[in-house]
Structures are given as C-alpha cells and as structure tokens.
Specification:
It is built from two helices and three strands; from the N terminus they run H-E-H-E-E. It has about 80 residues and is α+β, with helices and mostly antiparallel strands. The protein has a domain of about 40 residues.
Length: about 80
C-alpha cells in the first residue's frame, strides 16, 4: 500500500500535522487495530509511545530518517 496525500491541510504547521497523526493512531489503537509497519513521522515517536501505553500496547519502531515504521502488539498481562 502506498502512502498518498488524500487532502491537503489548510494548517500546514508541524504541530497540526503531528497532532492529526497522533489522533489517527489513538483511534486505531482504541479500535484494537493492530498496526504492521505503519508509517509515521519520526518526531512523533515519543508521543505515539505514550498513546500505545494508554492502550497497553507494545510498540516496535523502525526509524528511517524523518519517517519511521511502527508495529504494535498487545502487552501480555
């Protein structure tokens, strides 16, 4: 699956883009969706790790410059 821009943001600031991305991750984890090599901005890793903790989800990160892939799995508790 390729990543394409579906809609341009009217607010092109980094903070808006990062917040939007975190909102997408929050929604996916809240819906118990597993992510497999999901592309994110590397600068968002620490915030996304905190989101994963909220949903008791382990996060594997593969950094590739300004982009990273994340893979999730539920903690065994």
């Amino acid at each position: 699956m390729s990543n394409i821009l579906l809609m341009p943001f009217t607010d092109e600031s980094c903070s808006f883009t990062n917040g939007f991305e975190c909102g997408q991750i929050w929604e996916k984890l809240q819906s118990a969706e597993n992510l497999d090599r999901y592309l994110i901005h590397t600068c968002n890793i620490s915030q996304i790790q905190k989101i994963a903790e909220v949903f008791l989800t382990e996060l594997e990160v593969e950094q590739i410059g300004e982009w990273s892939y994340i893979t999730t799995k539920k903690f065994n508790i």
